[in-house]
Q: What sequence folds into this?
């Protein structure tokens, strides 16, 4: 495959701006312009794109689904390799594994696996692509139980800085395999295929849902912090401060409220029902304006509920922290966050995590609790004010934080720790070893490329 055979859009050429725009799910598109955009169809195209970049003396960055909140794949002076058309799934019925290309969307993978009674912990929104999702960690459906999705990556096929297509696993090229499990945008290569371990589909899926007025936010948050460690791993609890939507999907008048969402994704009905009973222990239960419990659900519904929360076509800015801090320290700050949600689209997420051992992987930061703020708006005149909201509050939480998740990172505006010091050093060493010329751009920190 030669560089001439790839489909390449030069800066300013017809179709270039559409491809650049399509590379970001977020309508808040950064003012960064790659020199070239390569529309890859397969691994051969990726090999040719890297060879082209080497000859032209350009850096390289990939994009899969374009769901990085900061559009970290769109970079000045680079060849942007667009992998979105690489969306093939290989799965043999009955096999507990699948091979997926980076452009595959989470919902599609789980739809394909349903017939076989299997599932994979994909991102909560249906269109998050597996490429960036898996590389950065992958906090997906039932990850509290089966782990961040990157830990289920058994092997990867990678185009290296030398322009070779290699396979990496625990046994072969382990440096690449280790980094592909959590380094996110700092990965020194382009993954063209992931080999995944699959899981049995939860047979009993139920959800309970409550809406509390924000006046009782402090009581609800204290209670949620107390029950967090008691939650079975297969029960996902998410407290979301936002403007609720009615059954018709329309926003309900009256501003933000505190939504308590419990999703039991379990093997049997009795355990699913019992686990959701925990949500009935909230001391201000009688203040719930909506109390809908023990409803059967399925992945189709779960994806569409998440999609309704984070809608495409709007401008978004997110930020987050992992923390082990106590309620006394956290609740006053989170209460301010809840009371200051700046628009109907914006929301705050309080997500009790089930900490686990991360082995043979770059991923290394977690905590008992995940806190994130997502500002969503439409008017470009509000960019500065809306973008400041998540950052300002996460800055207040930073002294109580273990670090930040690459999933909802905002390193451009708020540099923070996202790997343990040991793994950060190891990643730097591996990058020097495998990409000494810095062909692949790394993290985008403080609006300047770092690493590579
Ligand atoms: C609406 C929404 C919902 C989300 N929900 C979740 C969630 O539930 N859980 C969660 O963990 N995260 C979630 N995220 C975050 C998301 O998983 C990350 O931003 C992830 O990086 C997106 O992957 P992508 O391929 O779509 O992004 P892209 O923007 O295409 O890529 C993100 C970064 O990864 C690099 N990259 C992508 N593919 C490759 C590849 N094949 N090889 C090398 N580098 C690559 C890019 O260069 C870029 O720096 C969500 C994001 C959005 C916008």
A:
């Amino acid at each position: 495959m030669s560089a001439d055979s790839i489909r390449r859009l030069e800066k300013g050429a017809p179709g270039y701006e559409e491809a650049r725009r399509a590379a970001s799910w977020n309508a808040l598109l950064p003012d960064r312009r790659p020199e070239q955009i390569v529309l890859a169809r397969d691994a051969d195209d990726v090999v040719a794109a890297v060879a082209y970049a080497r000859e032209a003396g350009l850096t390289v960055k990939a994009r899969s689904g374009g769901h990085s909140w900061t559009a970290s794949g769109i970079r000045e002076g680079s060849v942007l390799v667009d992998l979105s058309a690489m969306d093939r799934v290989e799965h043999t019925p009955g096999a507990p594994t699948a091979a997926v290309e980076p452009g595959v969307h989470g919902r599609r993978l789980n739809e394909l696996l349903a017939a076989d009674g299997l599932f994979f912990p994909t991102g909560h929104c249906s269109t998050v692509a597996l490429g960036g999702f898996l590389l950065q960690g992958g906090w997906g459906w039932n990850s509290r139980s089966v782990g961040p999705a990157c830990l289920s990556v058994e092997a990867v096929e990678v185009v290296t800085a030398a322009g070779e297509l290699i396979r990496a696993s625990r046994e072969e090229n382990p440096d690449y395999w280790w980094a592909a499990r959590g380094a996110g945008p700092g990965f020194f290569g382009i993954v063209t295929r992931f080999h995944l371990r699959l899981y049995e589909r939860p047979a009993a899926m139920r959800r309970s849902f409550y809406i509390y007025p924000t006046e009782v936010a402090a009581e609800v948050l204290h209670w949620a912090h107390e029950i967090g460690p008691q939650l079975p791993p297969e029960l996902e609890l998410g407290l979301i401060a936002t403007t609720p939507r009615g059954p018709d999907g329309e926003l309900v008048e009256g501003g933000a409220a505190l939504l308590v969402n419990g999703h039991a994704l379990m093997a049997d009905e009795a355990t699913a029902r019992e686990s959701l009973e925990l949500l009935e222990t909230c001391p201000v239960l009688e203040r719930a304006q909506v109390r809908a419990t023990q409803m059967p659900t399925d992945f189709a519904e779960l994806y569409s509920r998440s999609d309704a929360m984070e809608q495409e076509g709007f401008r978004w800015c997110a930020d987050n922290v992992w923390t082990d801090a106590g309620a006394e320290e956290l609740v006053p700050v989170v209460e301010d966050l809840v009371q200051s949600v700046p628009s109907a689209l914006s929301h705050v997420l309080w997500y009790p995590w089930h900490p686990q051992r991360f082995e043979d992987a770059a991923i290394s930061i977690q905590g008992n609790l995940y806190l994130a703020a997502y500002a969503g708006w439409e008017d470009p005149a509000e960019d500065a004010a809306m973008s400041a909201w998540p950052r300002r509050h996460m800055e207040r939480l930073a002294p109580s934080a273990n670090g930040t998740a690459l999933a909802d990172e905002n390193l451009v505006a708020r540099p923070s720790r996202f790997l343990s010091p040991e793994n950060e050093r190891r990643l730097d060493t591996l990058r020097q070893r495998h990409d000494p010329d810095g062909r692949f751009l790394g993290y985008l920190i403080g609006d300047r490329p770092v690493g590579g």
In short: Residues 448-452 have pLDDT under 50 and may be disordered. The longest helix spans residues 383-397. DSSP finds twelve helices and 21 strands in the chain. Residues 25, 61-69, 72-73, 83, 102, 123-125, 128-129, 131-133, 135-140, 184-185, 187, 190-191, 310, 407 surround flavin-adenine dinucleotide (CB under 6 Å).
